[in-house]
Specification:
Blueprint (H helix, E strand, L loop, with lengths): L16 E12 L3 E13 L4 E5 L6 H8 L7 E6 L2 E2 L5 H8 L2 E4 L13 H5 L1 H5 L7 H11 L4 H4 L9 H13 L5 E5 L7 H17 L3 E6 L2 H7 L2 E6 L2 E7 L3 H4 L3 H8 L42 H5 L5 E4 L2 E3 L7
Parallel strand pairs: 3-8, 3-9, 6-7, 7-8
Antiparallel strand pairs: 1-2, 1-4, 4-5, 9-10, 10-12, 11-12
Helix pairs in contact: 5-7, 7-8
């Protein structure tokens, strides 16, 4: 089990992916550092979807890429099953990384515009030198699985497809590697609302059919709630709260989580008035110089002197529910 801030709630089941005290920092100039992720802990269980929720700039995408070792984290541990990914040699890392696949936010730019769909889907197989007689059959089967007609899209290039079709091609390309873990980084935010539901339903069916575990990164509360089993809320690279998604709107207790909920239609009825952001403090602080103590304190209506002096630890407040806040009683 990972450290005290872990997202793992059921220690009787071994995780497929473990992240322990992961730090991601990026140098800016000679003296400044972007503190993108600070001490993140995750245990992803077989067959589950962990949603990572937070507004833009909170470190969600940096965390997802660091799990994939693209680039590797500044410090900390990432284990896929029993394989420690951090520090692996290039050849071994490539082999281990094939067990994890990532779906990016912009499906069109994720695809080589010069290649045809059949080649895009088979990219992973080509990298590993697989060119058996069954390759075309496997490509066709996977295209059907993601809702595409192979006879229609086989020779098309990305510019000849819609955004939703491009995202389906990206999902098919990931599935061809038979991964254990799928990391989805804002996979529907660039799509029309009508297409978003189709892709979300596809991801859910895919997870069941291919026996996947999934990390789903997004800033949309409703999307994360609907697709996830558990939700981890990030703010400036720190975990604020972890709880079952079914309880997100009724049981969330961290001021930041409740603020996010209040921003969705109907959320005003759930988040209390004393846990809303003041008009004077709605800007996200710079990750170059995050606030001391609790990083949310500069925007929090409940902040006290203790919040500035001490960083709150993630502690249990209920079954499967963890929170990092000095002012929420256990």
């Amino acid at each position: 089990m990972a450290g005290s801030g872990t997202a793992h709630m059921r220690p009787d089941v071994g995780p497929v992916l473990s992240v322990d005290q992961m730090v991601v920092e990026f140098p800016v100039g000679r003296k400044q550092v972007v503190h993108a992720v600070s001490g993140l802990n995750i245990d992803l269980l077989p067959g589950e979807t962990l949603g990572i929720l937070g507004e833009s700039g909170c470190g969600k995408s940096s965390a997802g890429r660091a799990v994939m070792q693209e680039p590797p984290p500044t410090s900390g541990s990432v284990r896929l099953g029993t394989t420690e990914l951090t520090g692996l040699k290039t050849r071994d890392l490539r082999r281990a990384r094939s067990r994890m696949q990532m779906i990016m936010q912009d499906p069109v730019s994720s695809l080589n515009p010069r290649r045809k769909v059949r080649d895009l889907v088979a990219e992973g197989l080509a990298i590993w030198g697989f060119d058996g007689a069954d390759k075309d059959a496997a490509i066709r089967e996977t295209l059907v699985a993601v809702g595409l007609d192979p006879d229609v899209v086989w020779d098309r290039r990305p510019h000849e497809l819609s955004g939703g079709q491009c995202q389906r091609v990206c999902i098919a390309r990931a599935l061809m590697m038979n991964p254990e873990v799928l990391i989805c980084d804002e996979p529907v935010s660039a799509l029309d609302v009508s297409v978003q539901a189709q892709i979300l339903n596809l991801l859910e069916r895919t997870k069941e059919t291919y026996d996947l575990s999934m990390i789903f990164i997004a800033h949309d509360v409703s999307v994360v709630k609907n697709i996830s089993d558990r939700v981890m809320v990030l703010y400036l690279g720190k975990t604020c709260e972890v709880l079952p998604s079914a309880n997100l709107q009724t049981a969330a207790r961290h001021p930041y989580t409740r603020t996010l909920i209040a921003s969705i239609p109907g959320g005003e009825e759930i988040a209390p008035a004393d846990v809303s952001l003041s008009a004077a403090s709605t800007e996200l602080p710079s990750p170059l110089n995050p606030p001391s103590g609790c990083r949310f304190r500069t925007r929090c209506p409940l902040a006290t002197d203790q919040c500035a002096a001490e960083e709150p630890e993630l502690r249990p407040v209920g079954e499967g529910h963890f929170i990092a806040c000095h002012n929420v009683a256990v």
